[in-house]
Structures are given as structure tokens and as C-alpha cells.
Write a structure and sequence with these properties.
The complex is a heterodimer of chains A (311) and B (282). Chain A contains 11 helices and 2 strands; from the N terminus they run H-E-E-H-H-H-H-H-H-H-H-H-H. Chain A has helices spanning 2-42, 61-92, 95-110, 113-132, 140-164, 168-176, 181-210, 213-218, 239-246, 255-286, 298-307, and strands at 51-52, 57-58. Chain A has a two-stranded antiparallel sheet. Chain B has a two-stranded antiparallel ribbon with strand order 1-2. The termini of chain B are far apart. In chain B, 74% of the residues lie in helices and 1% in strands. Chain B is globular, with a radius of gyration of 23 Å. The chains are: A mainly alpha (311), B mainly alpha (282).
């Protein structure tokens, strides 16, 4: 009986592992298969400037451009602000307030993106419209600001952790040399925490690239690169907003559908390589084989703060 | 003097940054709470939506969201536990540990809309299931799978090696060790991970908007193969008619309820953690 149980148990464990692994692979495979029509039919024309399905023009560059510019604006705003705030929470703020602030940030990071979208549509787009005297406040810039706010908690908590993990004795030694706080942070803390800060930025970048709902609601959904291209106060389109708006309208199996899936595939590949790059830094440092890597991930951080993981 | 001045400027920048962030934080919470409370009423929570959500309440949306995440949890939890045991007890080499980590963290990093289009292609079109509650639950289960696996793995893996050795010395075989020793210790971690995952899943819009939900129309689904309505997609539908103040009002109300659900799930994760400390940390 016991050996039978053992076998059933082992079967269950292996089956569930197989399901998990297949799930991950299946997503990539399904996207690849379904974008094949577009790749073989349209070929390099996929990377052109015009998206017009009735004329069989499926250029995804405007969407790629939108994704990149929204993400850049978001990072440009959120990274300096996030790092400065994290320096404050980790180095200046007393410990007990740090816990409260971090819990609040956790809450903020947990707010579903659709609610950010609602806030964007009800406030930010109207503010931008009034501020710049535009016809519509739904612009690339609005989406960038909203995205910056969404990734800010991620950046703050991860950078704060990175700074906090620097051993206390380093700070004391630096202080003992008579350095001001600014010098301690600039010459000691930031260089030591730099790899982790980079990881935080990569993760935030991945999240920003893949964000759908909030961006979709405020970006304006026009498949064009604005003229001139740095005119961020005009409506645009990102890969995610395009998918969100149009995938239900395209019929399954058509080239149109396939081109949309191709866009999704590109997005997936970019985000996957970023996530993996962010997580493999530790492995590169120690050499990939044998040694266990310390993975760097927001959910993992959350679990660690709640469950109390040990590395 | 120059050094001192630099230090002052640095302090100033840090203070300014934190004030700015605090302002954003208060603005966001303020808006959600203020607008939400003013939309709240007994009727709003307990009557169904009318007129595409612009009138009436959100009863079915709340029910639908809860049904979706509970089914997702039921699908995801056993698979995640199995995977976590495999990762903790069967994968020995560091190389395979790293590869499995890449899978888990990679899956965790996939943008939610990709799950949505995957579900649309694979389930709705390829397997022909149609837009249904069940497909939505499967896709949500996929999005929270890595979270539960990570959490369960960590708590199973943190059971001291001496426990395994002593129970093996008593003549238990591997499965008995897992069932009698590791799972009881690892269970709280898995539940915590599940709740963290559910806090995320309940707010996800992009994965379910093409495959599981009918905007506003649906009531309580009669079977697993019928569409449901859910809070996030309801908010989306209302946000798209933002020029109508009544719709916007209901959108704020629905957002408030959604945030409450998210907070409920995440605080219960904390509670579980506090109540069942696992043995390694006692």
C-alpha cells in the first residue's frame, strides 16, 4: 500500500511540475505559431510605419514607438524620484516610520491597474488638457506620467531594500572618517547597491512595457508616430493598448489577427529577456553552473517580507 | 563649507522627493476613498447593474470576481504545491534549480495581456470553449501559479534537514515524509502565497477581458461554461463612458470595492503568516 501511495504521490508531483513547465512553454509556442501567418505573408513589411488592416498594411513601428516612448517617459520621471525617495526612507527616516511607509507603498503597488486607468482618465488627462490647451488630454505624455506613478512603488521598495542590505558597519566606518551623509550615500552606498538598483530599474522597465489597462485608457489610441516624433503631447498607441483595443475585433485566423499576435510576441520576448536579465545578474557574477542564483523579483520580495524567506 | 552645502542640498532633494511621493500617495488614496465612499450605499452593493452599469449596483460583478478567483485558486493551488515539492525535494543540481527558477520568474514576469491573448487563441478559439468563467479561471490560475509555487517552495524548503533525516530513519518513505512532515510545515507558506496571488488576480483586467467576462449583462453563471461579469472589466466598461457622470460615479464605487477586496486578500496573507509561523522560524 505504502509503495503504491509513494508512486501516486510521485506521479502527482511530476504531473503538476509538467503542467507548470508546459504552461510556460505553451504560451511562447502558441504565440509563435499564430504569428507565423503574418511573418510569412507580410515579412519585413511588418516593420513599417503604416497600420491599415483593410489595405493589408500591418506596420507595427508606431506601436513599438509608442511603447518605447511611454516607457522612457515613465522611467525618466520615476527612476530619479524613486531613488531619491528610497535614499530618504532607507537612510534618513527612522526605522519605525520606515515600516509604515513600506506597508503603504505595498498597498499602492497592489492597486489594480484598471483603477490607475480610471484615475488617469478622470484627473490626469483633464489636467494635461487644460495645462497645455489641447483638444484631448489623452496623450503619450499622460500615459507616461500615469505609468511613472504606477512603477514608483516598485522602484522605491526595491531600491530601499538594496540600500538597506548594505551592512551597517560600512556606514559606521564611513561616518567614522567624518563623511557627511551625502558623501556616504554617493561614494559608498550607491556604488555597492548599484547592481541591485539596476535590477530594480530593469524590473520596473519590464512592468512598464507590459502595462495594459491604464495605458489603454489614457493614450488616445491613434496608430501614428507623432510629428515631429518627440511631440509627446499627441495621442499614440502602445503594443498593449493596441492588443487590448483591437484583438477582439480581428477575426481568428486572419492575417490581421496574426499580425496582432506578432506584436504580442515581440512584447513578450522583450519583457522575458528583461526579466531574465534582471534575475541572472547574480548568476553571471558567480558563474552559472552549480551555485544557486539569488533571484530578483518583486513578488519574491513581497513573499520574503511576509513569509520570511531565507536565501 | 562646500561639502556642508552639498550635504544640505542633498538632504533637501531627498526631503523634496519624499514629500512629492507622499503627495502622490495621499492623492491616490484620497481619490479612491473619497470618491468611493460617496458612491457607496447599501443598494449599490446589493442590487444588480442596470443600463450598462450606469445605474444600479454591482452585485453580480462582486459575485463574479469572487467566483473567478476562487476557481482560479482551486485550479492553481494543487499544481503549485506539486511543483514546489518537486523543486524542493527532487531537483538536486544547482543548474536545474536555476533553470526552474528561470521558468517560474519568467512566467511571473509575462505581461498580463499576453495571458489574455493566449487564452483567446488557445482556449476560446483552438479548443472552442467560448467565452466562459472556466477559461478565465484557468488563465488567472496561470498568472498566480508562480507566486504560489515560490511561496510554497520557500516554506517547504526551509524545513530543517534534520526533520527529513529523522523521519526517514523512522522508516517513512519519501511520500510519507512529504505528507506527514513537509506539507504540514509548508502549508502556511503556500496559503500565504495563494492569498498574495489572489490579491493580484482579483484586480487583473487584461487577462480576462476577452475570454471570461461579458460586460454588465451577465448574472450568476449557470454553469462553468457561461461568461461571468467581474469588477475590473466592469470598471473598464464604465471608464470608457467617462463623460457620463452617473457611470463615472459607479466606476468609483466599483473601484473602492475592488481595492477593499485586494486589501482583504493581502492582509489575510499577513494574518496567516502571523498565526502559523513555520517551524524553521520558531
Amino acid at each position: 500500500m505504502s509503495t503504491l501511495n509513494n508512486k501516486i504521490g510521485k506521479g502527482y508531483i511530476i504531473a503538476s511540475t509538467a503542467i507548470s513547465a508546459t504552461t510556460a512553454l505553451l504560451i511562447v509556442i502558441v504565440l509563435l505559431l499564430n504569428s507565423w501567418d503574418a511573418i510569412s505573408d507580410i515579412g519585413w513589411q511588418l516593420f513599417s510605419l503604416k497600420w491599415h488592416p483593410p489595405a493589408r498594411q500591418f506596420g507595427i513601428l508606431p506601436m513599438l514607438f509608442g511603447t518605447m516612448s511611454v516607457t522612457l517617459i515613465a522611467l525618466f520621471l520615476a527612476v530619479p524620484l524613486g531613488i531619491a525617495t528610497a535614499i530618504f526612507t532607507s537612510e534618513i527616516l527612522p526605522g519605525k516610520y520606515r515600516f509604515i511607509l513600506k506597508s503603504l507603498l505595498e498597498l499602492l503597488a497592489g492597486i489594480p491597474s484598471i483603477i490607475y486607468g480610471l484615475i488617469g482618465i478622470a484627473f490626469f488627462s483633464i489636467w494635461i488638457q487644460k495645462l497645455y490647451g489641447l483638444q484631448s488630454g489623452r496623450t503619450i505624455f499622460t500615459a507616461g506620467i500615469l505609468l511613472a506613478i504606477m512603477i514608483l512603488p516598485t522602484i522605491i521598495t526595491l531600491v530601499d531594500d538594496a540600500l538597506h542590505h548594505v551592512p551597517k558597519k560600512y556606514r559606521e566606518a564611513a561616518k567614522g572618517l567624518g563623511l557627511y551623509k551625502y558623501e556616504v550615500v554617493k561614494n559608498m552606498l550607491l556604488p555597492i547597491a548599484k547592481p541591485d538598483i539596476l535590477g530594480a530599474v530593469l524590473l520596473a522597465l519590464g512592468r512598464a512595457l507590459g502595462e495594459t489597462m491604464a495605458v489603454m485608457l489614457v493614450i488616445g489610441s491613434i496608430d501614428k508616430i507623432p510629428k515631429p516624433f518627440f511631440n509627446w503631447l499627441s495621442p499614440g498607441q502602445t503594443i498593449t493598448s493596441k492588443l487590448g483595443r483591437e484583438i477582439a475585433e480581428s477575426s481568428f485566423g486572419s492575417v490581421h489577427f496574426s499580425a496582432m499576435i506578432f506584436m504580442g510576441l515581440i512584447l513578450l520576448l522583450i519583457v522575458l529577456s528583461l526579466t531574465i536579465a534582471a534575475q541572472l545578474r547574480a548568476c553571471w557574477e558567480f558563474g552559472f553552473r552549480g551555485k544557486k542564483c539569488l533571484f530578483f523579483d518583486e513578488t519574491r520580495r513581497k513573499i520574503r517580507s511576509i513569509v520570511g524567506l531565507r536565501d | 563649507m562646500n561639502r556642508k552645502l552639498k550635504n544640505r542640498i542633498f538632504g533637501g532633494i531627498a526631503y523634496a522627493a519624499v514629500l512629492f511621493c507622499a503627495a502622490i500617495l495621499f492623492f491616490l488614496f484620497g481619490v479612491i476613498i473619497w470618491k468611493g465612499i460617496s458612491a457607496m450605499s447599501f443598494d449599490f452593493i446589493f442590487i444588480p447593474a442596470k443600463n450598462f452599469g450606469a445605474e444600479g449596483g454591482i452585485l453580480y460583478q462582486i459575485l463574479g470576481s469572487i467566483l473567478l478567483v476562487i476557481t482560479a485558486a482551486a485550479i492553481s493551488f494543487p499544481i503549485a504545491i506539486g511543483t514546489a515539492i518537486f523543486k524542493s525535494e527532487y531537483i538536486k543540481s544547482g543548474k536545474w534549480q536555476n533553470i526552474s527558477n528561470i521558468f517560474i520568474y519568467g512566467l511571473n514576469g509575462i505581461p498580463s495581456i499576453i495571458f489574455g491573448i493566449f487564452g483567446l487563441i488557445f482556449f476560446v478559439n483552438f479548443l472552442g470553449t467560448g467565452i466562459s468563467w472556466f477559461v478565465g479561471a484557468i488563465i488567472l490560475a496561470m498568472t498566480i501559479l508562480p507566486t504560489i509555487t515560490m511561496s510554497a517552495y520557500q516554506s517547504i524548503n526551509s524545513v530543517p534537514i534534520s526533520y527529513r533525516e529523522s523521519s526517514a530513519a523512522l522508516g517513512l518513505d519519501k511520500w510519507q515524509v512529504i505528507i506527514k512532515v513537509l506539507l504540514p510545515q509548508g502549508f502556511s507558506g503556500a496559503i500565504t502565497g495563494l492569498l498574495i496571488g489572489l490579491a493580484r488576480a482579483v484586480g487583473e483586467t487584461a487577462p480576462i477581458m476577452f475570454i471570461a467576462t461579458a460586460f454588465s449583462g451577465a448574472g450568476v453563471p449557470g454553469s462553468l461554461l457561461e461568461p461571468v461579469s467581474a469588477l475590473p472589466t466592469h470598471i473598464l466598461a464604465l471608464a470608457q463612458q467617462a463623460t457620463n457622470p452617473a457611470a463615472l460615479q459607479n466606476a468609483w464605487g466599483a473601484s473602492f470595492v475592488l481595492v477593499i477586496l485586494v486589501i482583504l486578500f493581502s492582509t489575510s496573507a499577513l494574518m496567516v503568516r502571523v498565526k502559523y509561523k513555520n517551524i524553521a522560524q520558531r
